[in-house]
Write a structure and sequence with these properties.
about 80 residues; alpha+beta; 2 helices
């Protein structure tokens, strides 16, 4: 499974790096997101822009580390 540790990125680069990895996934492929805070804002971004193209499953929910498995369920068209 592809993994991205968002704690290694400066804040303004986190979401673009995560989205780049998501777009690179094949349909039904998953990625593991590791973060130092709850990535709820990212979840809302996915819901707003790519609804019905992903699943989101927490594997660890803090307080210091959050791990989320994001699976691409449909092909995503993005700019």
């Amino acid at each position: 499974m592809k993994t991205i540790d968002a704690t290694k990125y400066i804040p303004k680069e986190k979401h673009p790096a995560i989205m780049k990895l998501f777009f690179s996934l094949e349909v039904n492929e998953s990625m593991l997101l590791i973060n130092d805070h709850d990535p709820k804002p990212l979840y809302y971004q996915f819901q707003a822009e790519y609804k019905d193209t992903f699943t989101w499953e927490y594997k660890e929910e803090g307080p210091d580390i959050y791990k989320v498995v994001i699976t691409k369920t449909k092909e995503v068209h993005h700019d």
